[in-house]
Amino acid sequence: MNRSSGIEPEVDISAGQKMLSAVSGSLLTSLLVTPLDVVRVRLQSQPNPPTSPRPPSSSIPSFRNLPPNLGVTACCREVFWVNNTSPVCLAAGPTLTTSVDSITTPTASAAACAVDETRRKTYTSTLDGLRKIARNEGLPSLWRGLSPTLVMAIPANVIYFTGYDILRSNKRSPINRYVADGYAPLMAGSIARVAAASVISPIEMFRTRMQAAPSGTSGVGVFKETLVGLKKLVHAQGYSSLWRGLTLTMWRDVPFSGIYWWGYEAGRNRLRDLRYPSMGREHALSAMRKDEKHTATFIDSFVAGAISGAVASIVTTPFDVGKTRRQVTGRDDKKQVSKADKGASLRPEERSMPRFLYHIWKEEGTAGLFRGWAARCLKVAPACAIMISSYEIGKKMAKNMNERRASGS
Fold this sequence. Notes:
The protein is mainly α. Helix content is 68%, strand content 2%. The protein has helices spanning 15-45, 73-79, 108-120, 126-137, 146-169, 174-178, 184-212, 219-237, 246-275, 281-291, 294-315, 317-328, 333-341, 353-369, 373-408, and strands at residues 70-71, 88-90, 99-100, 103-104. Helix 1 crosses helix 4 and helix 1 (15-45) packs antiparallel against helix 15 (373-408).
């Protein structure tokens, strides 16, 4: 069965050359888009701000006699006094001279500091997250998790891209033999993603928890803390806990890959038709493989990859939100075990994927399901464009090198 795809024929390029192209693309992509991934994880894992108005004080009789400037002790403990054990604290007050019934009263400047601290840890958008993380935690924090990202991206992309190429271009592939041409990218992309995601799921959990770590800890400290947390998780729940969120990862990545590769090949075909308007599709494909310059290959693959990646990322954002929250939660593993032993009801994060996403929608609305969509799209679209264009250019260079060797021998 003939294929009018943008994938080079299997016979022209060796598997090793394809792997090398995937590795170079992975390195470049990871360096450029990791800051956006850090912001995405922070946006999706931060607590949801209350949406309903605060009830009037008259509706809460038991708190009627408390001062009107009452604040939250957790804020006071975190910002001002580490060993403060008073049940509540005043968020504003003229002086630091009164203490009524174990109620500590900080100064007005301290209250302003508390507000500042809360704002510093709350991200309202992608640009706001980039600015606050760089300013408050230092520029290197935007590349937090880069090491596990590289460890994860290189094998994942080698499996993913070479697997897709083999499924699409090898004549013995079941995709070529049994699947209609219009559905071949969907099937090949989905199967390749299942294989890649299964291999790198534990590394992705490690990276996600590192990127979600709060500020105030050095990079080495975050690495050690995350490693200790994963050891406790394995001790409490077994090695299978390292694949927590794999189901959600599949729900996100499998449809994403199908949509992405279908859109990418359709986009490459459309751009090829525009570049060679007087030829049929098969003749245009042959002309592209023979005469197309590196610049044209880069532009076509970059544009098609960016557009298809953006569409696929937006469609699958709810599954990305669910996956991130399931992987980030559960740091207090002892509490989880004790709750399970007591037969308590499952937390939302421990429910099945459809119920968890329904819970997010019920509590936070559609905005909760698509939280971080802009950061995800800004990360995924250029990442897909850079990765696929680097991969295609690498394959074209390898193909030209093989042709020169063949002609010189």
